[in-house]
Amino acid sequence: MEKGKMLLVSLGQGAGNIVDGLLSRNSRYNGLFINSSLFDIKPLKNADITKNVYLYPGTDGSGRDRTKSKEMIKDNANAIGTLLSKYPLIEAVVVFTTMAGGTGSGAVKTFVQIVKKVLPNSKVNVVAILPSLKEDELAFKNTIECWNDINNIMDLINDVKFVDNNKRNTYKEINNEVIESLDLAYNIIGIHAYGTIDNKDSFRINTADGSGLVLKLYDGLKDVKTAVDLAIKNSVFVQPDIYDCDYLGINLKIDGYDPYEVTKLFEVYRSTYITYNNKNNIVVLGGCETPTESINLIKMALEDKNKRKLSRNKKRSVIIDLDTDNKEKEELDVLNNNELNNLLEDNYRGRPQICVK
């Protein structure tokens, strides 16, 4: 893929960290940061408020409120459309969002619709980040609603990749892995006597209709299948239910794994592209079925939290019995309604009335 013809767009804070990292790896990418809070933008090295940042005016975050986010992007649709029109040569728009939050989660559907209206010839990819199963009820609810939003406009989206936050211990580790994997996928091109992948081939693989997957194979394992199995296990991307795909891109180290052994592990319906390099072992699948296992786990986690909430018996007042001899005194301390009314009448009777004109 030609980096100068790609536009990486972050919706919200979590997505901004990934786009910022990709721009740091390769300055040829075009980046655009859309947010509702200036504080989310300030730490980003490659976000320039005068060049590639759009802040919703008069806002200070969404508070993880997807409804508020939907309203904000609709109110700013014309301005965002005008901003996107400044990129007429863009061939692929990659939209990044976290699914559990507010600003990005609530905006992704409308934003994709705006992109297709303003840049109808551009491919639209989505990278959506699922929460870990340790998150709270609101995170799960937002995620499921965002999932449905994305699936409702799947006809407008080409490649979609879902990131699994359960695969690493920290957000930083997840972000670094996503940044490295995506950059390698977009740079899968290579020229070799026994196989070449050019920019057009890479574009075809990375924008195929369906779910996409990037696998990094480790060196030194006993065979290709072991290497692929380990890469699947360690991948931060949500895995498809089956590994059938439309396009398969393979770029392996010279004199390493046999790429033709890799091809035997996947059912490819259109084309397979093979090349070689001196640094990395990368396998990219394009056009897989939409994965469902991870979102079903999120749904189960939400249902479990709802059940526990319904069964909760929250105590607000607990009286400690110190001495049974004081029971008569405690009863005297409690006022009945008549006594309370009389007390209030005594306190307020005779007070002058204040009239405000």
TrEMBL record:
A GO molecular-function annotation: GTP binding
Domain Tubulin/FtsZ GTPase per the UniProt entry, residue ranges: 57-157
Domain of life of the source: Bacteria
InterPro entries the record matches: Tubulin/FtsZ_GTPase_sf, Tubulin_FtsZ_GTPase
One of the Pfam families matching this protein, by short name: Tubulin
Name under which the protein is recorded: Tubulin-like protein CetZ
Organism expressing this protein natively: Clostridium luticellarii
